[in-house]
């Protein structure tokens, strides 16, 4: 199954469900993987930048602003992954009659919105 969706100014493509051969594994297209890795590389750079700001005794408010931007970027990665998961794995499990997946999704969402 291949699903394409507009998500926060990028395209999410999912080739198949996260379960295969009895195991739990993600299956993302190369385009989605590259998008996620690019975002994570940018986030990694932001974190290094924050570390540098702290080492240089940068004004706290400026550091906090950079931390907020980094958290937002990381939340975007999580949203992309969650959207793909919901549109493939969760949908497939529900169609198979496995509603226990909803408990898993609720726990995952609670982790994401926990502050």
Automatic annotation (TrEMBL):
It comes from Metabacillus sediminilitoris. This is Metal-sensing transcriptional repressor. Gene3D superfamilies: Metal-sensitive repressor, helix protomer. It holds the Pfam family Trns_repr_metal. PANTHER family: COPPER-SENSING TRANSCRIPTIONAL REPRESSOR RICR, TRANSCRIPTIONAL REPRESSOR FRMR-RELATED. GO terms for molecular function: DNA binding; metal ion binding. GO terms for biological process: negative regulation of DNA-templated transcription. It comes from the Bacteria.
């Amino acid at each position: 199954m291949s699903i394409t969706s507009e998500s926060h100014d990028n395209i999410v493509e999912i080739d198949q469900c996260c379960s295969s051969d009895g195991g739990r594994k993600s299956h993302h297209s190369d385009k989605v993987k590259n998008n996620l890795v690019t975002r994570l590389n940018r986030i990694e750079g932001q974190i290094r930048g924050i570390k540098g700001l702290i080492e240089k005794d940068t004004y706290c408010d400026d550091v906090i602003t950079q931390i907020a931007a980094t958290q937002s970027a990381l939340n975007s990665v999580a949203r992309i992954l969650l959207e793909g998961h919901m549109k493939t794995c969760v949908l497939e499990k529900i169609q198979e009659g496995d509603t226990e997946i909803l408990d898993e999704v609720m726990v995952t969402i609670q982790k994401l919105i926990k502050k």
